[in-house]
Structures are given as C-alpha cells and as structure tokens.
Amino acid sequence: MKLRVLVPLLLAVAAAIGLVVGGLLPSGGNGASPTASSSATATASATGSPSQSASPSPSGSTTTSSQSNFKITKLAPGEKPPQFVVVSFDGACRLDLWKHYLDLQKAVGAEFTFFLSGLCIVPDNQRFLYHPPHKAAGTSAIGFGTPSFIPGRITNMTAAYNSGNEIGTHFLGHFCDANGVDSWNQADWRSEITQFNNFLDNWPKVTGLSNLPPLPFTSAVIKGGRTPCLGGKRSQYLPVFKSFGYRYDASGTGSLRWPTKVAATGSNAGATVPFTASASSSMWEFPLQSIQVVGYGRSQLSMDYNFLYAQNKGVTTGSTALCNRARTSTTASYLKAFNAVYNGNHAPLIIGNHFNTWLCGAYRDAITTLVTTVHQQHPDVQFISFIDLANWLDAQTPAVLASLRGLGSQSE
Ligand SMILES: [Zn+2]
Known about the structure:
11 helices, binds zinc ion, 5-stranded mixed β-sheet, TIM Barrel, 5-stranded parallel β-sheet
C-alpha cells in the first residue's frame, strides 16, 4: 500500500510548496539531479551554524497547541463518540495556499495540522547550514527556501498557530531514495530533528530577518510528524520521536478505523500495544486511510499524491477535462469516506495534502468542498488537529478506547 514517490513527483512537491529546487542536489546517485534553477536573489547574513545553537529540551512533556479551541469530552461507556475529521498538510510553504486554508479554517471553525518542511525557512544561500544524514552538507531533495517568500511564511505560521492550528513536522531534506530515510538509524533521525528544531527556533539568525515579530511558538510545540514519502523504519524513528516529546506518528497506512497505540521504545517499537500502555513508552498512530477512489475502480491512501498516482500516474498537469474528472472523483471520494464513518463506526477521517495546485487545484478544491459541505450539513462534526485528537483519546478510558477500536474497519 505504501506508495513510493517518484522523483518527478518529488520535484513537483518541491515546486508545489515553493522551495527552490537548486543545483545543490547530488549529481548521479538517484539520477535525479535537476538543472540548477536557483531563483535566490535576496541576501541573508550567515550568523553561526544552527547546529551549534542551544537545543530546546525535549522531555516527553504534554505541552500542546495552547491556542486550540477544542473542548475535550469524556465518553461514558457505550456513549456515541463525536465525529472528527483531521486535515493535515505536508510542506505548508506556499503563501497563496496558506491564505486559502487559513481563510477556510476560520470560515468554518476548523483546526488543521501543518507539517512544516523546515527548509522552507532556510534560504537557498544558507543551505550549507543543513547537514543531512548520509548526504553532503547543503543537499536537499526538495531544495531550499526562496528568500523573498520567507517573511510571508513566518507571518502565516504565526497566524496559523494563533488561530488554533497545530504546527507539526515534515522534517528537512525529504530524502526518499535508497540512501534516504529508509536507511536512517536513530542517530540520523536525532540529527534531522535537532536541526529542524534549531532552524525553527533560530530562524531570525538563519534567515537574516531581524525585523519581523517573533514566532509565538518554539519547536517545543511540535508533538508529531509525517515522514517523507511515509518512509523510514519505525524501530529507528519512533524512539527518537518519543525522546523529543512527540505523542503521535502520522506516517502509517491504515483503514477507516479508530486509532491504536504503538510501542515507541525498545525493540518492538511500532508494534501495536494495549491502550493501557504507558505514555512514556507508547504513542498514537494516526495513519492515512485506504479509501475508494471514486470512478477509478480502486482504493488508495487518503493523500493527494496517492490519488494523483491513481488518477494521472503522478503527473501533476492535465487537460481541463482531466482536471475536472480528478476534482469530481476526489471530492466524491472524500465525501463517500466521510459518510461511511459518519453513518458507521465514527472513526476519525484523516485526509493528507501536500499544499499544492496539482491538476488545476483539484485536491485543494476537493478538501475545500469536503470541509464546507460537511460543515453545512453536519454542524456536529469537528475538524480538529492531530494533537487535539491525541488529547481527546488520552482523556478516554482504556475500555472506551478498546470498544471503539473493536468496531473494526468501516467499509464504504
Ligand atoms: Zn512529503
């Protein structure tokens, strides 16, 4: 079920999220070396390596998005659960899409999860500050930040956090090749996350932008992420997530079913564990869900690039007719999956998106229609972030959680 992102699609992701696909990619190797196309023009002062800066002290605390307006309810045994929908974005760089989704969430009172690609705020001319595992310094599979876009990104991240949305991580270099995240050990993941946190916490130095208001949050608010291409070995990254205080992983693949807990430490990291497992040794698993791709006779993960693969072989452009077909299909698919859980086991519906306008904006439009339609038709449905979902689940008794999980996978 796991779909490996093809190189062209990866570059499309970079373009979609507004990164500079520079000439610093390794030549050869994965054969993906693109032509140099740096558009970096602004200057930024180099003021020290982020890796030498103080790292926040991750400690498994339960700090969450303090701005969230979500009210946690505790279910009585047998009580009908709320219907949650969790919409999350990988990358979260493009300014026009920041505006679109922040407008959308405000209009309907939704809260989304934004998994930042940290290199969106590392200017192309500061790329050598990044030391990726098993790659040369200054290497990235998705490029680095276009300097002129970075102030707007900081502003949007501020607005997103202050509006109750969750800030999570999609990490840095987005390496999905044979020498990428699948080969990383715990030390590699620790390096990646430490650097991500330092870029985020020291962004004025990294960017040279000293005239903007400070971000209203630090890396301490990050409680979960989604790995590049859903890759990486869980035995390697989950213990590191745990050491940084993360409380969930959104990189898995699953079905329309209530979430479970997985071991986050020890040799069985990634294995399902009972709901009574301690918070210090486990975390929530919030997988993308296999849902029907309406009109295409198959199922795919509830993520835009997986739909793009099913609908157009991963090609991000197409004719108006093709775009319309993909838009109609994706919208119908989201609504079908929603109606299945809403009228069935009430499992949270989990939708992933890459902050893009692939196929004339088909996936952006499908999410927008899903959110607005469900909001109009079912005011009881709550669009919440992953961390709010984790907090809600943690507030329930193990018996209630086990009974919800016991409802099994919802068919469509
Ligand atoms: Zn990605």
